[in-house]
Records
---
Amino acid sequence: TKMALQFKDSFWGKDFISCDGYEAIIQRLNDGRRTCKDTEELLKMRASAEEKYGKELVSIARKAGGLVEICTLRTSFDDMKTQMENVGNLHIQLSGLLKDEVKRMEEFRERQKEQRKKFEISMEKAQKMKVSLYKKTIESKKSYEQRCKEADEAEQTAERLGSAPTATPKQIEKVNKLLYFLLQDEGDYVSSSNIEQLDTLRQEWELTHIDACEMFQQQEVDRISVIRNALWVHCNHLSMQCVKDDECYESVRTTLESCDIITDNNHFVEGRKTSSTPPAPIEYQNYYDNDAADSNGSAGFIEGVKKRFTNIIENLLDFFTPYQTQTSEGVYASIPGLQVTQASSDEYKALYDYIAQGEDELSICVGDVVVVKEKGEDGWWMVERNGISGLVPGSYLVQE
């Protein structure tokens, strides 16, 4: 176990009025306060990023389409959107946790500021009194020493005058008075008294210094512990977020495992199939052929039609031949550019919901029965329901 060094044993001044140690501690506290603010700023920025990211995910999930897909792939796609929105909400919740941690850090920093302020005021007051009395003591000491020097000089002068044959009684009396005055001076007492007061004040200052050092060291212990724990908790939050994200994505992977290609294609075939055989080819039929029949769906006539007025009809055919255009198979070609639509009045049932996207479209729900008026080659059918007509995707309907 490491031995904890104490502030009170390591930050005394180098001389009597020096406060280098105290100033070093105060600088450390200021740096620690700056680190607290930097930690708060880090958490704030991360919270903002998490909130923005979460909202973007929710927006993407809600805007994603996939409404036209069917069966198991549709289920997987819908689950992907759901889980993406869940992940977004989880990141928004994480943002809230980080903001709460920032508030706790700010409250902690303010509490330390108030505690520190009291001890700083006490230390400044004690230091100021110590310096003031120290200067006063030094001045009284200098004055006292100066008096002593003058007294020594006066005594030496008196001795010289006493042994000198030329000295007058008046000179000797004057020197004796000066010596008496200097010896009666209270400078010695004043200097001694100031030193005693200074020593008492010094002891008080040392106690204040020790209390402040202990308090400041405890603040540093608390500050380092709080910041360390905040960063630790932040990492735990991020790790937990990764676990929650993976759980959401695992749900999507599980759904995708159930996505079957054959099942989806079979579902499409069973729900939208039209005919199991291709249409019969169109064959050329002579209008006057007795064997004409309506075998391929085209217009035909009953057997037994007699070829009467043969010459007249042949002449008519010869007359109209220049105006007829035939294909290589003998079938009349269609007019270029003409788009043919199939008209029908059959009833169809809606397989899926559809919300109209334009004024010319019609909204339908699953199970609605509509009457198809016209089938466009572009996949959009004109239908009628309850007297209201509009376009819907033909792939959403199945014949009753």
---
Amino acid sequence: MKGSEKTTPSRADLVRQRRAQTTQQRIQRAKQSVMRREHRPTVIARGMVVPSASPTRPLPTSKVRRQYYFTLGVSGAELRMPAIPLVNPGWRLLSGMIAILMTLILYTLFNAPTFRVQRIEAIGLQRLTPADLQAVLEITDKPAVTLDLQTLKTQLEAAFPELKNIRLRLLFPARLVLTAVERQPALAWQVNGDTYWIDPEGVILRPRGEAGELPLVTANALPPLMNDSKGARASLNPPEVWGNHTEAKFVQAILNLRQRLSSDIPLVYDGEIGFGWQDPNGWQVLLGNTLDDFEAKMELYQIITEQIQKRGLHPQVISLEYLQAPFYK
């Protein structure tokens, strides 16, 4: 029977079927390609935005070279000079160069003669010399960056009590400049062959150079010291005395007393009985260890002198040590 028989497709039918399958596959691949392009990032190529373009491989980087053109005359011809590459160093190279530069700078600061201190410059000094200062500081040929100005100032204060308002400055490249005020002596104190200077503030100084004619006190002991609570002044050597203080009013009283007396009358100080002098009339005057009531004692001495002269007396000693109980004998 013809209805139940299976028909065999012809060759033309097979060709049409293969073509239909191929077409269907192409359509399917086109759909998939469109879907993939929708998810691709936008890429700029040669100044244009191409949404569907995507780089297939990273482009090699090249160093940009800057070119220079020079015009030759008015003919319009140009001469191209060799290209100059633009260097773009990385952070590692830059850090290495900085480290090398800093090493060279430090080496120069520590070793170059230009940055080594050779001497100290002093401003405001009259009797002290730079040589005196350098003997204490020992700064010759030392790198300027190693100097501690505060330590140097402390050394100067300890070695030279005659200096005040000390200021040290280190100027480029290696200049050490000292600015200070030098104390001026107000009187000379002579004891056991040693001479000390005392300024108006009561600071005991080492004699240096020339200070002119100073009021002189001849003594057998040092003046009362402010920090000598145990009475150790008798055992002090001259270097231990320099820089000590006596009271400023004590110095001022001595200067006032010196003005009251004739210049040819020597002023004497005894560690036990205090100040005194030999009066031209033949008697010795004693004022005591303190001069707190100096003006009152001098007024009292004037009164006692007038009474003695009226009576025609010739005492050996007039003592004003105790203002309320003066006596003569």
---
Amino acid sequence: MTDTPRPPGHAVTPPRIVCPVTSRKIPSRRGVPGGRLHTDTQRELSPSPAMASYDTNPFADPVDVNPFQDPSVTQITTTSHGNLEEFNPFTENSRLTNPNQKTVPVQPVAPSQPAVLQPSVEQTPQSVAIAAQAGLLQQQEELDRKAAELDRKEQEMRNVNINLRQNNWPPLPSFCPIKPCFYQDFAADIPADYQRVCKMLYYLWMLHSFTLLLNLLACLAYFIANSSGGVDFGLSILWFFLFTPCAFVCWYRPIYKAFRTDSSFNFFAFFIIFFCQIAIYIIQSVGIPGWGDR
């Protein structure tokens, strides 16, 4: 490229270059005497204090830091370990040179023997029948032994019950030749829920007997006052000695047994006989002449 001729006396203006940092035009060195920039140009090129912090290139590669260049690591790796020996656990010499190693004794393995299959023995029908018969006989003996033991225990319990459950009613003195005929114990025989009812029926029987005794005494007094009352006196004696034990045996003892054993038959007998007893009470309460009632 050739320079364009300029007229004489024309001042040469140096070309300007745009600074990439400050975005200002910088005059070129060409055409400047001595190749130096003007003072204004140098002042423009000098960086300001605010731009000093942008000297480093943010797009430059970061400095690689080697972690193995740490002084503590390099000191250990460069130190010689002369007191340690290389140990190979797979060599024979290592076992000899390492006296601290404990060797585990190896137990000798017994030579394996081939398995021998025992021939299966098939049982004959006769042997099966004999074995079954022997088992049945053993079971029969065991059952007989258990049955004998149960009989013995039952007999012992029966003897104990006979000795313990001695008849205590009626309570008669020991010198009396007549012994008690019945056993009665509300706490032992009757459940707790029915003891009160059973005792009330017992007291009712006692009231019935006492009423018959009073009737006998009234007929006796009437017979003493009037000799024509002998029939009533005789019948009052009969009612007393007949109805007193019959009422005890016919309706009191059935209800006692019914509460003790929860027997429906005894309950049925009690209701039938006790209904008849109530009917007799009603007839005697009327006071029919000649019936032994006063």
